[in-house]
Design brief:
The complex is a heterodimer of chains A (365) and B (398). Chain A is built from ten helices and ten strands. By secondary structure, chain A is of the alpha+beta class. Chain A folds into three domains: 96 residues, Acyl-CoA dehydrogenase/oxidase, N-terminal domain (Butyryl-Coa Dehydrogenase, subunit A, domain 1, Orthogonal Bundle), CATH 1.10.540.10; 107 residues, Butyryl-CoA Dehydrogenase, subunit A, domain 2 (Beta Barrel); 146 residues, Butyryl-CoA Dehydrogenase, subunit A, domain 3 (Up-down Bundle), CATH 1.20.140.10. The longest helix of chain A has 36 residues. Chain B has three domains: 83 residues, Acyl-CoA dehydrogenase/oxidase, N-terminal domain (Butyryl-Coa Dehydrogenase, subunit A, domain 1, Orthogonal Bundle), CATH 1.10.540; 127 residues, Beta Barrel (Butyryl-CoA Dehydrogenase, subunit A, domain 2), CATH 2.40.110; 148 residues, Butyryl-CoA Dehydrogenase, subunit A, domain 3 (Up-down Bundle). Chain B starts with 6 loop residues before the first helix and ends with a helix. The chains are: A alpha+beta (365), B alpha+beta (398). Chains A and B meet through strand 6, strand 9, helix 8, helix 9 and helix 10 of A and strand 9, helix 9, helix 10, strand 11 and helix 12 of B. The structure holds flavin-adenine dinucleotide. Flavin-adenine dinucleotide (FAD) sits at the interface of chains B and A.
Chain lengths: 365, 398
């Protein structure tokens, strides 16, 4: 086994760390442009797809650094999820969008989750019915990240079956200004743009369909697996940041005449934090290394990693806040942002409970 | 042993319930249940209703306008209020300063300040912590120098909860620098409208403007506002911290929180059924409920011992640690229960003044914010680490 990053990935990591540290205050649009120029968006795609990466460890290098810096970019939505679906399922016209994504000229969002689906990927109630040689979409998509900035959405809808069937789910590339499509935007607790998206009588031509009718589930599951691996890496970066902030703080904060980091009660807590973060790193490596494995093994690692990351993220967020005392509770201090990110990641594509249950089901074979 | 309430206690509980159904408006209870932030007028209106019934100062003796209730009655009262989602009683005047004045204040101070706590004329805040003095409170540096008929106060307090609403602050100040830190501290009452007092908000992790910095720049405080003896403030401060211990475990809040989780889990879809029927979630819920059932009895045992004439000493540290862990676990359950809707944060719903239907279920709006806000429970009131140290020293004699 070899756990070294390749030379290219090591270089990418180092240059990203420098760049992110120096550019904490860029606006979202500027930051997106900068990511394109640095080739970061291209790192989400393979050479065949017009990029120069696309493997699990390419995603993890980038997302770990984003998480460490606490920066937000719609890279997951445009680069991994929507971009991934386009490359996997798209016809020539649809594939052509990928080039625009890589160049930083097009942002997308993936509108999949629904108010009653929680984290179940197969749970789709939005319908796509045949009409006049095309389709009519009706439904409600919830917590769609980047929906407001995106020019196009990739929307999942059911062309057959009942709400809980894996079969019968189709994907559509939808322009945001489509008649009947409503976007109600808001921010998440950690300051990410998201929205409720409602589709009412949205009429689409047949050419808007992405992939085969009713066959989208496998691709969705695969791309969500990639996104989950990337999220694990992002959380890992946030954990490292939280740990560093806390260690620095308890070395300098004086109470009772000594640095509080001298109290063994706190030292042992930080030792546990370190042990658990190393576990989180291993789980992230496991999932990244199995993204191209056969489905059963891949998904087992997805759920194992996301469960562990959810648990450790909570531990690290809570311990680091606690060890800071009052200052850890403030919005201004940097810890708050990374702690919130770790907890919010638990709610993207399945929390630790969801993935525990899924792991049990998957490991029964 | 008898674990059940007596006939009189059950009757008392009915009386409290009747009061709540007549006086707590559903709109206010909804705000509390949903975790929306309460404004000054919400608190004041609720205090006024309790005061009109004579129930505002549940822990004060009758002679000062209190209730004279037993510890069990107080627990029933607190449970019922919490379960009905009444606003919490703001503790600074009622459960912190009141008992200190009653024990250590002079007649003039009692006559002047106690009625105004009840009437709501004064809103008190607590000025203990400073940037350099948190857990190690005794090293506080805000100084009060006696100059004839007044003290000249200079320095800074921080983390002052709801200081933005307050017109008075009770402070620990340094009156002697040349002795061991605990021996040079005095307990001073400061009118926040005095020249030289300024208040600056600190925004918390969930966006709440709940705490403040309070600055004192050559503030003149009349010597009549000294409580007890100069340089004896540490004794009064410790009395304040150990006096009101019945609610340190926050049992009522936990019971109400658990009921709320169940309500949410019964509304949330899970696969083809409901979240409440999912065995994994049910197991988590049951685990907390089991802890809480035992905690209720632990709490009663500690109170009973104290009622029998022994002061609740280090045992109350146990209640603080376990009680806050349970409350925090419940906030974690709540954020889990709402699934992906734990992510949106809707400022318009935070104040509870949202007229249109929120775009996500109303019960979901504040759950993550509450989860983060309640991290404070293990930090303030003597952090859980400090409580464990007390247990080690005072009970285990380590
Ligand atoms: C939301 C909120 C509201 C508050 N409201 C008020 C208020 O109204 N009035 C007021 O006066 N104060 C208030 N406080 C302040 C509160 O009492 C302090 O935050 C608390 O005493 C801890 O102090 P600190 O924040 O300086 O942390 P520190 O004392 O610096 O502690 C940092 C960490 O070190 C740990 N630690 C410290 N000493 C030891 C030790 N000897 N052994 C092991 N671990 C140790 C602590 O447990 C903590 O984990 C509030 C705080 C918060 C967060």
């Amino acid at each position: 086994m070899n756990f070294q990053l390749t030379e290219e990935r090591q270089m990418l990591k180092e240059s990203l760390r420098r760049f992110f540290a120096q550019n904490q205050d860029l606006g979202l649009d500027e930051f997106w442009k900068a990511l394109a120029e640095l080739g970061v968006i291209g790192a989400m795609f393979s050479e065949k797809q017009g990029g120069y990466g696309g493997e699990g460890f390419d995603l993890s290098v980038v997302f770990e650094e984003l998480g460490r810096a606490g920066l937000k970019a719609p890279l997951m939505q445009s680069g991994v999820l929507a971009g991934g679906l386009l490359t996997q399922l798209g016809n020539d016209d649809q594939q052509a969008l990928v080039e625009q994504i890589i160049a930083g000229r097009l942002q997308l969002a993936f509108a999949h989750g629904e108010p009653r689906s929680r984290y179940l990927l197969r749970h789709v109630s939005t319908t796509a019915k045949n009409c006049d040689g095309g389709f009519r979409l009706d439904g409600h998509k919830s917590v769609v990240i980047n929906a407001e900035r995106a020019k196009k959405l990739i929307v999942s809808a059911r062309t057959s079956g009942t709400f809980n069937d894996a079969g019968g789910i189709s994907l559509f590339v939808v322009d945001k200004d489509l008649q009947g499509l409503q976007v109600h935007g808001y921010q998440t607790l950690d300051g990410v743009d998201a929205a409720e998206v409602r589709l009412e009588n949205c009429v689409l031509p047949k050419s808007a369909m992405l992939g085969q009718e009713g066959q989208a589930f496998d691709a969705i599951e695969y791309q969500v697996a990639r996104a989950t691996a990337a999220l694990c890496a992002e959380s890992l970066g946030a954990m490292e940041s939280a740990k560093e902030l806390t260690v620095d703080y308890i070395k300098t904060r004086q109470q009772f005449g000594v640095a509080i980091g001298k109290f063994q009660a706190l030292q042992h807590r930080m030792a546990d934090v370190l042990i658990e973060i190393e576990q989180a790193r291993s789980a992230t490596i496991n999932v990244c290394g199995h993204l191209e494995a056969e489905r059963g093994s891949r998904e087992l690692h997805v759920s194992a990693a996301k469960n562990l990351i959810g648990r450790v993220g909570r531990l690290v967020a809570e311990e680091c806040i606690q060890l800071h005392g009052g200052i850890g509770m403030t919005q201004e201090y940097r810890l708050g942002a990374v702690a919130k990110r770790m907890i919010m990641i638990d709610h993207e594509w399945g929390d630790s409970d969801h993935h525990l249950q899924r792991f049990i089901e998957l490991s029964r074979g | 042993m008898d674990l059940s309430y007596s006939h009189e206690e059950r009757q008392f509980r009915e009386e409290v319930r009747a009061f709540l159904s007549q006086n707590l408006s559903p709109a206010l209870a909804d705000k509390v249940r949903l975790g929306a932030r309460l404004g000054k007028s919400d608190h004041e209106a609720w205090h006024a209703k309790l005061n009109a019934r004579g129930w505002l100062a549940s822990s004060w003796p009758l002679e000062y306008g209190g209730t004279g209730w037993t510890a069990v009655q107080r627990q029933i009262f607190e449970d019922e209020l919490a379960l009905a989602h009444a606003p919490r009683i703001v503790p600074f005047g009622l459960t912190m300063l009141g008992p200190v004045l009653q024990k250590f204040g002079n007649e003039e101070q009692k006559r002047r300040f106690l009625p105004r706590i009840l009437s709501g004329e004064d809103w008190w805040c607590q000025g203990y912590s400073e940037p350099g003095a948190g857990s190690d409170l005794a090293t506080l540096r805000t100084s009060a120098v006696r100059q004839g008929r007044h003290y000249l106060v200079n320095g800074q307090k921080t983390w002052t909860t709801l200081g933005q609403f307050a017109n008075w602050i009770f402070c620990l100040v340094r009156t002697d620098k040349d002795v061991k830190p605990q021996a040079g501290i005095s307990f001073l009452l400061i009118d926040m409208t005095s020249p030289g007092v300024s208040v600056r908000p600190i925004v918390l992790i969930d966006g709440a403007a709940e705490v403040n910095e309070v600055f004192f720049d050559n503030v003149e405080v009349p010597v009549e506002n000294l409580v007890g003896e100069e340089n004896d403030g540490w004794t009064y401060a410790k009395y304040l911290l150990t006096h009101e211990r019945t609610n340190i475990a926050g049992l009522g809040f936990s019971k109400a929180g658990l009921a709320n989780v169940k309500r949410i889990a019964s509304a949330e879809a899970f696969d083809e059924g409901l979240l409440i029927d999912n065995p994994h979630f049910a197991a988590r819920l049951a685990q907390v409920e089991i802890d809480l059932m035992a905690m209720a009895t632990t709490n009663s045992r500690v109170i009973a011992k104290a009622a029998a004439g022994q002061a609740p000493g280090a045992e109350s540290s146990m209640l603080k640690v376990k009680g806050t862990l349970i409350r925090q676990e419940i906030t974690d359950l709540n954020r889990r229960a709402v699934g992906p809707y734990a992510m949106p944060f809707l400022p318009e719903a935070v104040e509870g003044g949202c007229n249109e239907e929120p775009v996500i279920p109303d019960y979901a709006v504040m759950q993550s914010a509450q989860y983060f806000n309640n991290r404070k429970l293990s930090i303030f009131g003597g952090s859980n680490e400090i409580q464990r140290t007390i247990i080690c020293k005072a009970i285990l004699e380590l």
